[in-house]
Amino acid sequence: MLRLNDTDINQNPAVWSHDPSMMWDPVSRRYYSYSTDVYRPKSGLCAKRGIPVRSSPDLVHFKYEGTVLSENAVRQARDNGEYPKTENFWAPYVEYVNGEYRMYYSATRAFGSSESKIWLAVADHPLGPFENRGVAADTWGTDDTYPNAIDPHIVREKGREYLVYGSFFGGIYIKELDADSGLPADGDPRTLGICISRRAPKGPVDGPEGAAVIYVPETGYYYLFQSYGWLGDDYDIRVGRSRTVTGPYTDTLGRDLKEASMGLKIAGSYQFRASAPNVRDTGNGWKWGGIRGPGHGVPFYDPVSGRYFFVHHFRDGAAINRVYDKKEDRASYKTHYMMIRPMFFLNDWPLLGPEPYQGEEYEPLSPCEVQGRREIVIFKESDNRMQTGQEETADDKTGYPDNCIVYRCPDFENGGVAAAVTGFTDSGLAYWGKFMYSNIV
């Protein structure tokens, strides 16, 4: 289970997971989470390029399994010709398709560059070795007005397969793939596709990136998730929806995610009160500082439970993790972890649970089953600063109890059981809540 202030990946496999994805393997009947290359040899994370993977039988207990790209695939994807070799690979997404495991991953010229490639590698086992089949998207040699070929995700509509990709620069794009090979339908990796999200010219927050699209049959919508903000501190998670996979994707007010809106913010930096968070006491002065920058997440449907979840990374907000960059004039929080949250749908919009998933059975509660005051955080549209929990009564005008979901779950910050709340305020903002001095009838 997730434990803060523990950077030994063998004891705490959730640590050092960045840009995580999740898949259910119907063959081994296990879950696998693949993530960006991160080198922490002293923490048990191998100093070897090639996409780390963690496995789990239940989405709670994970095991670090090593890296999965073959040496040949790594050598091939690192080769940038006359330019320095790619240092690490980013944001993998893996599926089991047509009897093989397909991994899409990013190789960029350098950190911050818009010149990148998305490779497709295949294997006959989720732990690899994965061998490169070809390039699915290529923005090498383009300028910053073009999309960046990173952060791949796959979605399907009526038997047709699409690659969702992009980051900052020219925005988020979607292009069709050949369903049999997994490579571009027109055979050209440099075909861009269609733009479905892009920051407004003078938008208040940097982004978007880390996009993923999922279709939800229960609502009939495709949902585009993406992140805005600085990934080291004030990252967030936003969403828009569309009736068709290629868009347009709009927010709750009908504004297009292509320059008119960043989307409905459903998660950002937050700090509930914490009397007993799950933490390893190492004597290093760690003190609770909330959850920073949840983002770059992937929604997924779990066929075992029939429930929806969302996996993302976040940064531990403890002061000992803060590093200030004078040149960039911004702070970063250096220790990051994977978190899985339950995902619900209210008024045909997705909402995330305020507490990490810890194996609980979803147990909805009616308002008459909970008593006392609650602590809430409200996610403001353009303010990505840390949101601190505020006390509120059930009579305050946040929309409770008609426009929210209340359920029983473990309390990550305080131990025991919590009555968690996720919903919309009267003004349409997403918020999270937990009942304080909780008295669950």
Question: How many distinct helices?
Answer: 1
DSSP strand tally: 32
For the biggest β-sheet, the strand order reads: 24-29-30-31-26-28
Shape: globular
Q: Give the end-to-end Cα distance, rounded to a whole number of Å.
A: 28 Å
Percent of residues in β-strands: 35-45%
- The structural class is mainly beta
Q: Unreliable runs, pLDDT <50, ≥5 residues? A: none
Mean pLDDT across every amino acid position: 93
What share of residues is helical? under 10%
Radius of gyration: 21 Å
What kind of sheet is the major sheet? 6 strands, antiparallel
How do the strands and helices of this protein lay out in sequence?
Layout: E1 23-25, E2 30-34, E3 52-56, E4 63-67, H1 71-78, E5 90-97, E6 100-108, E7 116-123, E8 131-138, E9 153-157, E10 160-166, E11 172-177, E12 194-197, E13 209-216, E14 221-227, E15 237-242, E16 264-267, E17 270-271, E18 291-302, E19 307-316, E20 322-325, E21 330-333, E22 336-346, E23 349-352, E24 363-364, E25 370-371, E26 374-378, E27 387-388, E28 390-392, E29 404-410, E30 417-424, E31 430-435, E32 439-440
Parallel strand pairs: 17-27
Antiparallel strand pairs: 1-2, 2-3, 3-4, 5-6, 6-7, 7-8, 9-10, 10-11, 11-12, 13-14, 14-15, 15-16, 18-19, 19-22, 20-21, 22-23, 24-29, 25-32, 26-28, 26-31, 29-30, 30-31
